[in-house]
Design goal:
Its EC number is 2.1.1.171. InterPro entries: DNA_methylase_N6_adenine_CS, RNA_MeTrfase_RsmD, SAM-dependent_MTases_sf. It comes from Knoellia koreensis. One of its GO terms (molecular function) is nucleic acid binding. The protein is of the alpha/beta class and 191 residues long. It has a single domain (24-184), classed as Rossmann fold, CATH 3.40.50.150. The chain has a 7-stranded mixed beta sheet, covered by helices on one side. The chain has a two-stranded antiparallel sheet with strand order 1-2. The protein has helices at residues 27-39, 57-64, 77-90, 102-106, 127-139, and strands at 2-3, 13-14, 47-51, 69-74, 95-99, 114-119, 143-154, 166-174, 177-184. Helix 2 links the parallel strand 3 (47-51) and strand 4 (69-74).
């Protein structure tokens, strides 16, 4: 069973979409990931973008832990429906679900830039498509200058190809799952 781990909705169950297109992040990986994000002090008041949201577990966990607002983007109609149901069941304000292709959403400027981005695409998404997503984030104003982008993939895949003005800030491996942290270089040359 997938659940919210901590925060105001801690312990609440989340429905998961059926089918092969989604792969919920395990509770173990989410717990480790959010422990790191809390250590970095990037959750409270964050503007969160959750790409390839699936059940919405990552973005909803961020909302539970104090994010100011969360936009969950999911292309699959069934998964987006489950994500909307999960968001409604939690009753946390500031959560929006958008059913659309990630690349289509990222091709236009956002209504606001985001401080924290999760990208947990299906493992079958190509490295080129992921690199395009990251480039669109960079080119269309989706990120604040101090944004943190978290990419979750299979541990068998290579490190994502980051935009030229980004820097890798860390990497963690949890069994078959790899998580990379990156973001734009700050004006002083430090990520």
């Amino acid at each position: 069973m997938t659940r919210i781990i901590s925060g105001r909705a801690g312990g609440r169950p989340l429905a998961t979409p059926s089918g092969q297109g989604t792969r919920p992040t395990s509770d173990r990986v989410r717990e480790a990931l959010f422990s790191r994000l809390e250590h970095l002090d990037v959750l409270v008041g964050a503007h969160v973008l959750d790409l390839y949201a699936g059940s919405g577990a990552l973005g909803l966990e961020a909302a539970s832990r104090g994010a100011a607002n969360v936009l969950l983007v999911e292309a699959d109609r069934g998964a987006a429906k489950v994500t909307k149901q999960n968001a409604a069941a939690l009753g946390i304000p500031g959560i929006t679900v958008r059913q659309a292709q990630v690349a289509r959403v990222l091709a236009s400027p956002p209504t606001q830039p985001y401080t924290l981005v999760f990208s947990d695409p299906p493992y079958e998404l190509s490295e080129d498509a992921l690199a395009t997503d990251l480039q669109l984030l960079d080119e269309h104003g989706w990120l604040t200058p101090d944004a943190l982008v978290v990419v979750e993939r299979s541990a068998r895949t290579p490190q994502p190809r980051w935009p030229a003005d980004w820097e890798l800030e860390g990497e963690r491996r949890y069994g078959e799952t790899a998580v990379w942290f990156a973001g734009p270089l700050h004006p002083d040359g430090v990520a």
